[in-house]
Amino acid sequence: MATAVLHLAAVDRLDSFTLPYPAGAQRALDALVLQCLRSGAKPPAGVPEMMRWARARPLGSWPLDRLPADLFDTADRMIDEDSGEPTQLCHELAVRGHGDSTGRQYDRLVIHEALRACRAVSSPESYTAFRRLLVNRPVLTEADWAEMSTDLFLDPVRFLIEEIYAPVPLGFRRNGAYLCCHRCLTLLHPVSDTEWWCERDQCRHQGPPPHGRELVASEVGELRQLRKPLRQFVTGPGRAEVSLEDELRALGLTVEMWPGFDAYDLRITFPDGHVWAVDVKDWAHPAFLGRAATAVRPEPPYDEACWVVPAFRVRARRDYLAMYAKERGPGACGLRLLTDDQLKRTARLRLSGERGPDTSIAPLHTVPPAREHDGARTASSRSGNQTAATGGAGKQGADHA
């Protein structure tokens, strides 16, 4: 069903659209009707009514008898009520349900190809520059494009950049201009004569999107933006990563971004040499995140590791951390999930000289190894119990993998 919603959302040139609907939408309707008949519920009369369900009915109210009762809450829908756009949850459902989903594969392929190209020239700096480009510049004017083309660090991935930035559809324009969100930097969608809608869950949770750059079409020339899977799964979580980077550095910590060609997101070093490894995840649904949990890759070495989720996810869904822990598999080796606020609080406590469980991010069933400040401990021993069982486990593509 989620895949069908995304396929229908991708249909353009509606003035020339003719039946039949895309095959995936018809398959979804057939399956939904069959499930309704089996459960004695009234089925949707066709694809249009099925799409109205996706926009108006919370997923927990659908007649799907194999869904756990607590899987979805009243806010979980496949299509946003205000904008008519697929929700982030819809994208996550499509990713989890279809291994051959184009959206699932695209951002992984881009990230893997960038890693391959940067490794080929032994330039981790080029990979870091590429990731920062995707996070900080999801929209490029002609002037931005010319400026970016002179960045020598981006030379190894220039061929990718030309593919992943696409011309912006006219649907983003209102009164001859485009508008960027001041928080997440992506283009806003006009939903009325006066209102704009941001595709990022976090922005909508914080209220109406603050207006950022206004780009007048006649002045900026051809406008390009990252393709949707990259905005969804790389730019979005990346904004949380760089925000955390800035705040941790303000505390006096040393932070390395995407170390070891993206082994994990942040490598945080304390003044005493103690090292944390952190992966930032921004998933709408905690159950899918728990099922995807794997122990953090052991190189570059570290003392403790965890995953981090933006605090707004937990404020929006109070059982977020508990459901993650419930769905987390044994392969995760007890990997903890903290909010970004919890991580910063734990860092401040450790910097103040506190010791104990409140200053640790390690799995609760392990104790971080004692530090030897004379440098005698070898790097391979630093990650202790946290990484002993990880083997070659690593990040799959970008942040949703």
Structural class: alpha+beta
What is the averaged pLDDT score?
A: 83
Low-confidence parts: 97-103, 370-381, 383-401
Total beta-strand segments: 12
Beta-strand percent range: 5-15%
Strand order of the largest sheet: 8-9-10-11-12
Cα radius of gyration in angstroms: 22 Å
Sheet having the most strands: 5 strands, mixed
Assembly status? single chain
Q: Please give the share of residues in helix.
A: 40-55%
Gross geometry: globular
Keywords:
three-stranded antiparallel β-sheet; alpha+beta; single chain; 17 helices; 401 residues; 12 strands; five-stranded mixed β-sheet
What does this 3D model show about the protein?
Helix content is 41%, strand content 11%. By secondary structure, it is of the alpha+beta class. The strands form four sheets. The protein has a five-stranded mixed sheet with strand order 8-9-10-11-12. Helix 13 links the parallel strand 10 and strand 11. Helix 1 packs across helix 4 (88-97) and helix 13 (286-292) runs parallel beside helix 15 (320-327). Mean pLDDT is 83; it is low at 97-103, 370-381 and 383-401.
Q: What's the gist of this structure?
A:
The protein has helices spanning 2-9, 23-39, 47-56, 88-97, 102-120, 124-136, 142-148, 158-164, 201-205, 217-220, 228-250, 259-262, 286-292, 311-316, 320-327, 340-351, 384-387, and strands at 139-140, 165-167, 177-181, 189-190, 196-197, 211-216, 224-226, 254-257, 266-269, 275-280, 304-309, 337-339. The chain is an alpha+beta fold and 401 residues long.
